[in-house]
Amino acid sequence: MQKNIMTLERHFLEQQRKFPLARGEFTKLLTEIGFAAKVISREVNRAGLGNILGDAGVVNIQGEEVKKLDLMAQKMLVSTMDHLGILCGMASEEEDTFIEIPDSFPTGSYALNMDPLDGSSNIDVNVSIGTIFSIHRKISDCPRGDAADCLQAGSKQVAAGYVLYGSSTMLIYTSGHGVYGFTLDPCLGEFLLSHEAIRIPGRGRYYSINEGYADRWFPWTRNYINHAKKPPEAGGRGMSLRYVGSLVADFHRNLFTGGIFIYPGDTRADKGKLRLLFEAAPLAFVAEQAGGRATDGRVNIMDIQPENLHQRTPLIIGSADDVDDALRFIREETNETSHVR
Length: 341
Ligand code: AHG
Ligand code: MN
Ligand code: MN
Fold this sequence. Notes:
This protein is of the alpha+beta class. The protein has helices spanning 8-18, 24-45, 68-81, 147-150, 219-229, 247-257, 276-289, 320-334, and strands at residues 55-59, 65-67, 87-92, 110-118, 129-137, 157-165, 169-174, 179-185, 190-195, 206-208, 240-241, 259-263, 293-295, 315-318. The longest helix has 22 residues, at 24-45. The model is unreliable at 337-341 (pLDDT under 50). The structure holds 2,5-anhydro-1,6-di-O-phosphono-D-glucitol and manganese (II) ion (2 copies). 2,5-anhydro-1,6-di-O-phosphono-D-glucitol binds next to strand 4. Residues 115, 118, 247, 279 line the site of one manganese (II) ion.
C-alpha cells in the first residue's frame, strides 16, 4: 500500500503554505489544468473507439492540418478555464488571436498560453502526445486583458509544464521551486505525486533531432550531430538517436535520461518550426528548473521577448553540458564571442 498519497490538489495547497505568495487562485488554476488533462487523457485513451481520430478538415494559422483531437483538447481547456475568474485571457496554438474571457464570466489576474495537443502527427497511430501550458501574471491595463498578457518573455512565467499521454499519463510542472511529476492513477482518477525535485543529468545518452532534414541543416548542426554520434574513441560522444516526433515525449525522455533535443533553424525555415510561447518557453522553464538549459543558439529561450503569439524559434534544449557542446559548434560557425549566458 502506497504511503503518504499526495494528490495534485494537496501538493498545491502545501506549496501555498510554504510559499505564501502563491495565492489560492493559483492553486485553483493549476488544479483545473489537471482536471482538463484528465478529461483529455480519457479521450486520448479511447481515441480508437469513438469517431475522434483523423483530420478536423481545417488548417490552423501555422498552415497545419488540425486533428479532431487537437480541437477537442483546445475546447476542453478553454471551457475548463474560462469561467473560473482567475484568467484574464488565453492564447493557444490552435487559435489565431488572443482568447477573451466571455463577458458573462469574471476575469482574473493570470494569462494562460497552451499547446492543447502536442505531437499531432502521432495522434492517429497511438504514439505518445501531450499538452503544454504556461502561466503569466496579467500585466496589461486593459480590465479584461489583452494579447500583451500572453506576449511575455519566458523568464516572466509563474508556472509552466506539460502533460504526457504516454504509457501512463503524467503531469510535470514547475512554479520556480523545482520540478514535480505526478502520475495519473487510472483507478482513483487522480494525479498522484510520483517524482519530486526532478533533475536532468548534466550529460545524456540521447540526441533527438529529425535527421530526415539533414540536407537542409546549416553546417553547425551537421558538425554537432556528427560529434554527438561519433564513438568516444574517435573523439565524439557516442550518443544514440531517439526521436518520437512529439516534443513532449522527446523532452520528457531526455529530462529523465539526460540528452539533447534540437529543432534547429535550417535553410528552409531559419526559425525552425516550434512555437516560442506554446512549446519552447514552457519547456525551457522546466528544463532550467531541473538544472538543464534551453537556447535558440544565440540567447536563452527564457530571455526572448515575443513579438507575436505564433512566433517560431529554433530550440536546443536538454542537459546543460550537451547544450553547451552544441553552442560551441554554433559559435565556431558564426565566429561570435559569446553573448549566451
Ligand atoms: P504540434 O503537434 O503541436 O503541431 O507540434 C508538433 C511538433 C512537435 O511536437 C515535434 O517535436 C515536431 O512537431 C515534429 O516535427 P517534424 O515532423 O518536422 O520533425
Ligand atoms: Mn506542439
Ligand atoms: Mn499542438
